[in-house]
C-alpha cells in the first residue's frame, strides 16, 4: 500500500500553494481565462497504488479565498482521460488507465476539505519497472487540451553503515558513559537527489495501576543531497550521541511515578526524492535576502506542477545496546523519564535497567 510520509505532505502543500498562487482576486476583462492544469504525481516502485493529483487554476469575479472553498473552482469534472505509459528503449510496453478516485483525507485549510479527487492506478500484478521511463498523458475531453510529463524512477540503493549483518544493536554511549557517534553511510540511488533520513525511537508506556500499554514513537530527520542523480556516490554523515540523548531529554516528558517506560527499538527510514522533485522543492524553499521573487519550475508540458519519483527504504527494529540504555537510565537529563526496561534484540526479551546491571532478569 502507499505509504504516507513527511516528504509527500510537503509536496502536497506546495501543490495547493501553486493552485492558489495561480488564482486572481480581481477579474481583468482584458485577460480571458486560460485553462491551466496543475499536476502533482510521485511514482514509487515499492507502492502498489499510485495517485496523481490533477487540479486547475481558476479565475473569477469573486474573492479567491471564497472560490477556493468551492470544489468546482479547482477540480475537474468527469472529463479527463488520464493515462501513464511505461516506456523502455523508446517503446511503450504498458499503458495504465487511471481511475477517478474520491478521497476523504485532505486537511482543513484554504481549500475545500476533506473530500477531494485524485486519479489512481494499481500495480498489484505488474509492478513498476525501475529501468523504465513513465509518461503521464492527460486529455481534457471537453476542451481537447493535452497535458503531459515524464519521469524516471528512483532505483534501490545500498546502505552500508552501520547496518552490517553481524551488528544487532546501535550504540550512542561507551562503557565508560562517554557519548558515541553513529556513522551512517549509503551509496546514492540512480535518479535520486534528496535524501531524508528519519530516525524513530520506539518505546512503550505502561500504566502501573491499570497495566495499560501504549506504543510511543519519537522521531526526527536529517536531509542530505547527492551531487548528481547518476547514483553510486558515497553519502556519509554522523549522528552524535549528544543529539540522541538531547532528543529524549527535550521531547519525552518526565513521569508522574505511575508510568513505567520501556526502551524498545530504533528505526531508520530513508525517503529519496527524484531529481525533478528535488529541483521543485529547492525552487519553492523560503526566500531569504532582499530579492523575494522566486523562479518558476515545472516539468509539466502545457500545465504546471511536478511529475517525479520517490523511493522509501527502511532499516527496522535495531536494538540499543546495554551501555546506551544504561546511560538513558543514569544521566541527569534523562533520569526522570522513567525508563526501567529495555528490549534485548539478541535474547528476544525485556531486561531490567538498574544502576548495577542492565542484563538483570525482570522476573
Distance between the termini: 40 Å
Basic shape: elongated
Structural class, from helix and strand content? alpha+beta
Topology, number of strands = 18
Which residue ranges are poorly predicted, with pLDDT under 50 across at least 5 consecutive positions? 1-8, 10-27
* Helix percentage range: 10-25%
Question: What does this entry look like structurally?
Answer:
- The chain is of the alpha+beta class and 363 residues long.
- It has 2 domains: 148 residues, Immunoglobulin-like (Sandwich); 153 residues.
- The protein is built from 7 helices and 18 strands.
- The strands form 3 sheets. Strands 1, 2, 5, 6, 10, 12, 13, 15, 16, 17 and 18 form an 11-stranded mixed sheet that branches. Strands 4-3-7-8 form a 4-stranded antiparallel sheet, with no helix packed on it. Strands 9-11-14 form a 3-stranded antiparallel sheet.
- The longest helix is centred in the first third of the chain and has 16 residues.
- The radius of gyration is 25 Å and the shape is elongated.
- The two termini are 40 Å apart.
- The N terminus is likely disordered.
